[in-house]
Amino acid sequence: MNIFQKFLKSLYSPMYIGRFRFQGIGKTIGYVFFLMLITSIPVSVLFTNTIFSTANKVENALSEEIPDFQLQNGQLHSEQKEPQIYEHENETIVFDASGEITREDIEQEENTTALLREEVVIAEDGTIQTFRYDQAGNIQLSKDDILTFADTLSGLFPILIPVVLLLLYLFSTGLKFIGIFALTLFGLLIRKAAPIRLTYRQIWIICAYTVTLPTVISALIDVLPFQLPFAFTLYWAIAFFMLYNVYKKLPKPKNAAVSE
C-alpha cells in the first residue's frame, strides 16, 4: 500500500489504521511530513493569493488614489487637510493626516485600512491591527519612497514567499509531532480499551495516522471565509473519537484451544 492509499484509508477506516501499527517508525515519520505537505496546500495558495492581491491593492491605492504625503517625526503630513475615504470593491481605504479620524472610529468598521495621523489601523473580519509610525524610529519617508520600496518588495515575492511557506510548513509539522505525542499519552491512558496489548511504539504509530482526518478538517476550516468557533476543540474531539474506534477495531486474540 503506497502513501496515497494510506492517506485515503486513514481518513475513514479505523480498521486500516490499526493495521499500520506494524509499520516502521521511519515510514510513519515520512507519512506525517506527507500529511502536512498535503494539508498545507490550501492555506499556502490562500496565503500567496492574499499577499499578491494585497500588494497590488496597496500599490494601486498609493499611486492612483492617496494624495502625496510625508512621514516625519512619527506623524503623517499632507497638503490634503480633509479626511479622504476610498471604496475599493469590498475594502475601504481611509487617509487622514488631520487627526480628525481616530482608531476608535476605525474599530467599528470592517475590511478597512486607515492611514491616520500617527498610526496605521487595519480592521479585517473583526480583528484590529495597529502600527504606530514612531515604532519604526525617527524615519522620514515620502509617498514616492514607499512606492519604490513596495515595487522592490513585489519583485522579491517569488523568493520570499517560498521561504516563508517552507518555514511555516516546518513549524506546523513540528507542532503536529507534538500533537501526536499528546495523543499518544491519551492512547496510553485508554490502552485497556484495546483487546490486545499495545506497545508505546505501536500506539505512537497509530496516533500518527489517527490525526489524518482532524488535520484535513482543520486545513479546510482554515481557508473558510469566516472563523469557526471551537475549531481546536473539534480537532481533538475527532482525534480522540478516531483513536478510540481504532482500538475497538483491533482484532481480538484467538482463544487457545482447550485440550480435552
Automatic annotation (TrEMBL):
<feature type="transmembrane region" description="Helical">
    <location>
        <begin position="29"/>
        <end position="52"/>
    </location>
</feature>
<dbReference type="InterPro" id="IPR009574">
    <property type="entry name" value="DUF1189"/>
</dbReference>
<keyword id="KW-0812">Transmembrane</keyword>
<dbReference type="Pfam" id="PF06691">
    <property type="entry name" value="DUF1189"/>
</dbReference>
<protein>
    <recommendedName>
        <fullName>Maltodextrin utilization protein YvdJ</fullName>
    </recommendedName>
</protein>
<feature type="transmembrane region" description="Helical">
    <location>
        <begin position="227"/>
        <end position="247"/>
    </location>
</feature>
<feature type="transmembrane region" description="Helical">
    <location>
        <begin position="159"/>
        <end position="190"/>
    </location>
</feature>
<feature type="transmembrane region" description="Helical">
    <location>
        <begin position="202"/>
        <end position="221"/>
    </location>
</feature>
<keyword id="KW-1133">Transmembrane helix</keyword>
<keyword id="KW-0472">Membrane</keyword>
